[in-house]
Structures are given as structure tokens and as C-alpha cells.
Amino acid sequence: MREPKLDKRIPKFLIEEGVIHLKISCQSLRERALLEFLYCTGCRVGEVEKINIEDLNWENCSAIVNGKGSKQREVYFTTECKVWLKKYLASRGDSCKALFVMEDMRMMQPEPSLEVIKQLFLNAGLERHWEKYNQLVKPGFFLEPTIAPEDEIPIGKSKIGGNPDIPRGFTWPDWEGHPMSFIAQINLEEFPMSSIDQNYPATGILHFFYPCDDDVLFSDEFLYDAFPKDQNVVLYTSDLSDLKRIQADPDIISFSSCLMNLKFENMIPVNSLINGKCLFDNDEEAYVLYENFCSSYYEMCNHDIGFRFFGYINGLQYDFQDADTELLFQADTNDEIGMQWDLSGLLYFYITKEDLLNRNFDEVFTDRVGT
Questions:
Q1: In this model, does residue 9 exceed pLDDT 60?
Q2: Is 216:178 a contact under the CB 8 Å cutoff?
Q3: Where do the H-state alpha helices sit in 227-321?
């Protein structure tokens, strides 16, 4: 005997009064403009994320939307929506071509806060060392990759793996005739760079390339190269108006395309800096107390090794990082993405603070370390 058919569930919807309450509750121009656009066009959030300002036709209040399967369609918005969109765009102080950008990243604060770290440090019994230690804590970003299809990642957005979005006329980099692999790209406007250093570049994109063929990586020529800075290419693109997604040749090792979720952190220094600055003045008891502090810190952060942008490296066999050097990018081994560095190791991209201030990315140097 067949079970009786259930009535189809009717989707819930907002009545006009509910929409008005939503509009009243908006706390920024961005929220109001986004709500108006979503409500009157019926677009999905993922579709709106891909819309650029140039996709809008202000005269007839329409926009070109890229939907599922890269199918384009035209949607229309109201005059009221048009007014809020223009107010929102006029309030922005960036050069990003996207219609909607994240809330002002400059207001983003690193976690845990310096006050929280100080309290952990004092609780560990290290009060007299805080003044010196405080100067070594620095902000950085933990990047959590999420695999996403290429056609769902907007041109110019930060990503790990996949294909790079580069300016026309770009020549694919190589080392001694061996093509490099595309590792990642970082759109600096998606990060609160002024919280790292107000003089560092805050706009543009960094593209990271590195050879990934084992026959190259473990060859004597590569391992003992007299010019190790030639073993990577970090391309800095300041003008994002003419970016094009370039697919690597089939014979070049590539990785799954990933969006990245970022976590802004205050990071504690690597042990090499602690030792190099003689922070604890050969106080053996302080070193023991410091290990307890580190355990509390890492437990609170709830993660350890991964992809990173600025801050301090994750040390495996060693954790040396010079005080005058910035960690530009750390790539982790990730089987899901297809990245493998020396038996579950890490790949580091470094740059001196002076070169970064001068936008001199030709001097970036790399290091790999395995477990």
C-alpha cells in the first residue's frame, strides 16, 4: 500500500511589512544597497559577488549577471535601488571594480587582542618580560582554503591554486627552462594592510609562482643554485583594470582552485627571535613558563600549521625568521588541493621590509622544509 502524498512545502516569504523592517535595520550604506539589489533583482548572493560596476547600465537600471554554468542574463532594479547603489559607491574610497566589496577592512582588529595575549603572558608568571615581548607580537593572516570551481571565483579575487588572473602581455615564468606552477594570488584590497604597516602597498595583486616538478626541486642544480632568488617569481600588479584569467599548459603542475577565508591574528614570535634577542636572559625557569604560555596561546587560536600571509612562519625542523624579514606567503601541504612540499612540509616566500616598502618583488626568496 502506497503512502499518501505529502503536500508540497510552500516556501516562506517576507510580506511587505517585513521588508520595510529589514530596510530600517540596515546599519550601513552597503547593507542597504545590497538588500535593495537582492530584493528587486532576485539574484543569488554568489551571483552578486561576481558583478562588477561596469556590468551595470544606469540608464535602464539593469545589470548583466553570470549565473550557473556561466550563463548570462539581464536583471533589472528599481530607481530606489539605483539611488542607494550610487550612494554606496560614492562612499567607497577604493579602486576595486567589484560592485560590492567587504566592509572596510581597515576596521578589522586582530584576534586574540594584545590585551588577551598580555593576560596569558602574565598568568604564566612572565610579568617582567612583557615590555620586551610585547614588541615582538605582530599581526598576520591565517588562510583557510575552500575548493571552488574556477567559474565561481571572480577575476582578481584572492585564491589558492587554479589559474592566475594576470595582465595582458604576461609571460609565464620558468626556472632554467622549466615552467613554474601558479601557487596563489593575493588581492591586497581584501586585507587590512594598514594594520600590518601603513607604508606597505594596500592595493594591487601579488601572484606567486614556484617550480613544482620533483625532477627540478631535488636536482643538484636547483638545490645548490648560486642565485636562489631566481627560483620563484612574485608578480606585483598595481593596475587591475585589464586582468585576464590564463590557463596553464597541460604539462605544468597545477592545483585545485580555492577561495580563502581569512582570520586576522596577533601572532607570537618564533623561538629563533626569542633566543636571538636573549629575551629571558638565560633564565631556564622562564623558558619553562614560556612553553606553558605558548600552549595556552595555540589552544586558544585552535589551529596550527596552514596557509599564511604575513606574521610568523610555522616552524617544522627549524623556525628561523629574521627580524628584518617579512613572511610574504606560506603554502602548506594539502592533499585535497594537490600541494605537497617535501613530505608534508611547507613552502615559504620571504621579503625584506626594505624591498617591500620599495615594491621590489624581484628580491623575494623562498625556502622549503619537510617534516
A1: no
A2: yes
A3: 271-276, 284-301
- Tracing cell 614560556 back to the chain, one arrives at 290
Structural Rg of the chain based on CA atoms: 24
Strand partners, 57: 62
pTM over the 0.85 mark: no
**In the block, residue with C-alpha cell 572596510:** 104
C-alpha grid cell, residue 4: 499518501
Identify whether the C-beta of residue 44 lies closer than 8 Å to the C-beta of residue 90. no
pLDDT tens, position by position, 151-194: 889 999 999 999 999 998 899 999 999 999 999 999 999 998 88
Residues 88-118 have pLDDT tens digits of 998 876 667 789 876 655 556 788 888 999 9
Q: Which residue has the cell 612540509?
A: 345
Cα–Cα distance for residue pair 179/253, rounded to 1 Å? 9
Residue 70 burial by CB count (10 A; 0-12/13-18/19+): exposed, middle or buried?
exposed
For cell 604539462, the residue is 251
